[in-house]
């Protein structure tokens, strides 16, 4: 293994604590060296678990590392990602990239201008069962449509129920990018939001148009009393109905697989990946179309 990448983690919330930090500390290609969070006590507690330092401010963290991993709300991430990219740091980014398409595009352009590696936390895409499912769909072809349902009670209680941005933006911004990404990868690029409806209980119903004339439907909510969470993704067409089976790979395992690709990118001249920042921009454009449709 080549020299470990020094990684600074911005954020100390549930996802940073349970996925980012242990994943970065355990992977042979990365070393979690620095943590910064709005609450210094939370940053210190997380950093202490892995022998990392606590940065006094964001700019200090950026100066001391090779990679910046961001685990904060999208409105906050945009500015931090731009500062890190302008300083020439590779980036591990959350979805959505930002609150607006304009900010997401600025992030992508700055990453490209500085020849940086980037990855968006579309961790499902790295699960072997998802990789195999998508490979089979691509081999067979002939798909006429698809659907995705993601229904949970995550905002009713649990680790993420105190997340204000999730309450404000709902399932569309949090789990929507995962659903869009999977349908897009399975059926071809999503080019149009044909219909959108949003109910008061965070229930979203969407109809999406894909580049090749295929359509798909999406149902999302994080405010339904469903236990366990329902995640159903399927396509149908000339070869029947092919559903993605239940999740077999944990978020932590998928994150480790994602880091394999990211570390390889950072140590090479390769700067493109199916889940890089440009993918984040594509998903941001879909989110924007949904909101415009509702407006």
Automatic annotation (TrEMBL):
Is Protein biosynthesis among this UniProt entry's keywords?
Answer: no
Q: Mind listing the UniProt keywords for this protein, alphabetically?
A: Oxidoreductase
Q: Which InterPro entries match?
A: Gfo/Idh/MocA-like_OxRdtase_N (IPR000683), Gfo/Idh/MocA_oxidrdct_glycsds (IPR050463), GFO_IDH_MocA-like_dom (IPR055170), NAD(P)-bd_dom_sf (IPR036291)
- Domain (Gfo/Idh/MocA-like oxidoreductase N-terminal): give its ranges: 5-120
List each copy of the GFO/IDH/MocA-like oxidoreductase domain by range: 163-240
GO function terms (MF aspect)? nucleotide binding; oxidoreductase activity
Task: List, alphabetically, the PANTHER family matched.
Answer: BCDNA.GH03377 (PTHR43818)
Name of the molecule in the record? Putative dehydrogenase
**Annotated organism of origin:** Kutzneria buriramensis
């Amino acid at each position: 293994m080549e020299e470990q990448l020094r990684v600074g983690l911005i954020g100390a919330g549930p996802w940073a604590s349970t996925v980012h930090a242990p994943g970065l500390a355990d992977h042979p290609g990365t070393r979690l060296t620095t943590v910064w969070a709005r609450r210094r006590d939370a940053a210190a507690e997380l950093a202490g678990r892995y022998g990392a330092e606590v940065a006094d401010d964001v700019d200090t963290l950026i100066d001391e590392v090779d990679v910046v991993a961001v685990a904060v709300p999208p409105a906050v991430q945009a500015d931090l990602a731009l500062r890190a990219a302008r300083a020439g740091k590779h980036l591990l980014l959350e979805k959505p990239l930002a609150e607006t398409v304009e900010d997401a595009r600025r992030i992508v352009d700055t990453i490209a201008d500085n020849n940086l590696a980037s990855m968006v936390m579309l961790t499902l895409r790295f699960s072997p069962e998802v990789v195999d499912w998508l490979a089979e769909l691509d081999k067979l072809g002939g798909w006429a449509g698809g659907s995705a349902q993601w229904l949970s009670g995550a905002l009713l209680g649990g680790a993420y129920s105190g997340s204000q941005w999730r309450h404000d933006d709902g399932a569309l911004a949090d789990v929507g990018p995962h659903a869009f990404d999977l349908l897009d990868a399975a059926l071809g690029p999503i080019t149009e939001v044909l219909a959108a409806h949003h109910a008061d209980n965070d229930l979203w119903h969407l109809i999406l148009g894909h580049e090749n004339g295929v359509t798909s439907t999406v149902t999302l909510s994080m405010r339904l009393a469903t236990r366990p969470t329902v995640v159903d993704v399927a396509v149908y067409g000339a070869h029947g109905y092919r559903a993605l089976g239940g999740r077999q790979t944990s978020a932590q395992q998928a994150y480790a697989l994602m880091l394999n690709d990211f570390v390889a990118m950072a140590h090479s001249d390769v700067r493109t990946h199916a889940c890089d920042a440009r993918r984040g921009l594509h998903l941001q454009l879909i989110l924007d179309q949904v909101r415009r449709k509702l407006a």
